[in-house]
Amino acid sequence: MKIKILGTRGKIEPKAENHVNHTGFLLDDKILIDVGEPNYLEYTPEAIVFTHFHPDHAFFVPNKEKFDPNIPLFGPEAHELIPKLQVISKKFELEGYSFTPIPVIHALRLKSLGYIIQKGQKRIFITGDVAWIEKANLKDLPRLDLVITEATFIHKGGRINRKKDSIFGHTGVPDLIRLLSPHTKKIAFCHYGEWFFENSPEESKKQIESLEEGVELIPTQDGMELKV
After folding, report:
1. Which of 1, 9, 41, 216 has the smallest set of CB atoms within 10 Å of its CB?
2. Contact assessment for residue 58 and residue 74, using Cβ atoms and an 8 Å cutoff
3. Pairing of strands 166-170, 92-94
4. CATH of the domain at 150
5. What is the pLDDT of residues 125-146, one digit of tens each?
6. Is 227 inside a domain boundary?
């Protein structure tokens, strides 16, 4: 599998060369996962799968534009702007790939899913944005060739908000490494927060790479291709 990282910037104002676009992943030039920029449609994907419907993952949300390309569309919950959306409730097959949805805690009022994507013997896990993933949803994961996750906050704990019995927000990169490294030896990071732009991107990438031994930590940039 080839995964092209189309965008690496979270929902923030700062940007830098090679870190301009919002979230999107192109799988083998066929399947688009999240559409943070309208020009991602120029890749003419055969299907689109959403992790959730925040604006940096679904560009059409802020202006309430109807999103209705004539291809299969999948997501974690119904959305008024996507009339033909197929709501994901279980594992499904798409263009020769199997998608296994993994519930992810992220937003207070939006449902979020990550996806284990398998083709042949190769498996990747795209988490989307993460406040937390319940360990019960991870305990039966198969061995993963690659995990792609977020890096909104570099410090342990990230920024977790609480309302009654619910949490929401983004956990920190060290927490994600601890949570995901038992399942893979390769973790790629995108969806950078403001911390990434406070110093040079190259220094920030080195900071990520230095966090863990024994696991390959890959700080990505717009247009980067990963292969498994």
Report:
1. 216
2. no
3. unpaired
4. 3.60.15.10
5. 999 999 999 999 998 889 999 9
6. no
* Residue 228 is assigned to a structural domain of this protein: no
For residues 178 and 110, give the distance between their C-alpha atoms in angstroms, rounded to a whole number.
25
Domain membership of residue 22 (yes or no) is yes
Residue 75 to residue 111: CA distance in whole angstroms: 9
Contacts of 120 (CB under 8 A, 6+ apart): none
209 token code pair: 């790479």
Distance CA 163, CA 89 (A): 26
Alpha-carbon separation of residue 203 from 152, 196, 208 (angstroms): 16, 9, 9
Q: Partners of 192 in the beta sheet? A: 9, 151
Residue 113 domain-assigned?
Answer: yes
How many structural domains comprise the chain?
Answer: 1
Domain hosting 122: range is: 2-220
CA distance 151 to 191: 6
Token readout for 136 is 């019960």
Calpha distance 192→152 (Å, rounded): 5
pLDDT tens string, the chain, 228 residues long: the values are 999 999 999 999 999 999 999 999 999 999 999 999 999 999 999 999 999 999 999 999 999 999 999 999 999 999 999 999 999 999 999 999 999 999 999 999 999 999 999 999 999 999 999 999 999 999 888 999 999 999 999 999 999 999 989 999 999 999 999 999 999 999 999 999 999 999 999 999 999 999 988 999 999 999 999 999
Look-up of token digits 């399942």: 183
